[in-house]
From TrEMBL:
This is DUF218 domain-containing protein. GO terms for biological process: Gram-negative-bacterium-type cell wall biogenesis; peptidoglycan metabolic process. Keywords: Membrane, Transmembrane, Transmembrane helix. PANTHER family: ENVELOPE BIOGENESIS FACTOR ELYC, INNER MEMBRANE PROTEIN, PROBABLE PERMEASE.
């Protein structure tokens, strides 16, 4: 019964209900002899349906992150972490402002890495574009690092960047000023390929350390991977955005 309910929900809630309405509209146009319009709408419906599947999202995500697998050995003279979102209006025990889930995961990985290497940490990320409630990623990340007993004199803050391109530009300036030539780049696995390319354009060769890198050789799929979902749409959208970002 739970499986049946979840299947029904998949088509009663967005984006599933939108797919149902689009498909019904294409059938209506076909019955009214608007054949070309019907076929065009049906093609759009199929494309939208595919873009809402976690099956499709996982395939293109795996191709995107496979360029930089998790390293077997990690070494460098600094740790460079990119912010991937923060909210200025969320209250926490440390005060106002909170990191997004992905930025928080990046920071946790940085702490573990610092405890092994004891090298300077560069936090790169300001207030992201397009979000009126965006918090300052680098400043909030510093607050979390201090709460986890990382020495303040080991933390360097770059809090101006609003895009990955600016992350690379401003962080590269700091690296050159500090004579740090071998940074370990910490960011999400899906964001890594684009980030590495942008740092190369700034003349910086990084050691990639992808957060949440999937190492499963062959993923198992089930029925729900072929049902439309918000997670599927977000995964496809996010991965395609990374591909498009490489054109910068």
């Amino acid at each position: 019964m739970p499986y049946i309910i979840r299947i029904i929900y998949s088509f009663l809630l967005p984006p599933g209900i939108i797919i149902v309405l689009l498909f019904a509209s294409s059938i209506f146009l076909f019955m009214k002899n608007y054949r070309k319009s019907s076929y065009a709408l049906l093609i759009c419906t199929i494309l939208f349906y595919l873009s809402c599947l976690t099956y499709v999202g996982s395939i293109i995500h795996k191709q995107n992150q496979s360029q930089y697998p998790f390293p077997s050995e990690i070494s460098g003279d600094s740790i460079l972490v990119l912010g991937e979102g923060a909210n200025a209006n969320v209250m926490t025990v440390d005060g106002k402002g909170s990191l997004s889930g992905q930025t928080a995961l990046n920071v946790i990985e940085v702490v573990k890495l610092y405890n092994k290497l004891h090298v300077p940490i560069i936090l790169s990320g300001g207030n992201g574009l397009g979000n009126a409630n965006a918090g300052n990623e680098a400043r909030l990340s510093k607050r979390e690092l201090l709460a986890m007993q990382v020495p303040e004199d080991q933390i360097i803050v770059e809090d101006r960047s609003r895009t990955t391109q600016e992350n690379a530009r401003y962080a590269a300036q700091i690296l050159k000023q500090k004579n740090l030539a071998h940074p370990i780049l910490v960011t999400s696995a899906s964001h890594m390929a684009r980030s590495v390319e942008l740092f190369k354009k700034e003349g910086i060769e990084v050691t990639p350390l992808p957060v949440q890198a999937i190492q499963v050789e062959k993923r198992k799929y089930n029925l729900f991977d072929f049902l439309p979902s918000v997670n599927g749409l977000l995964q496809v959208n996010g991965t395609l955005r990374e591909y498009l970002g490489k054109l910068q």
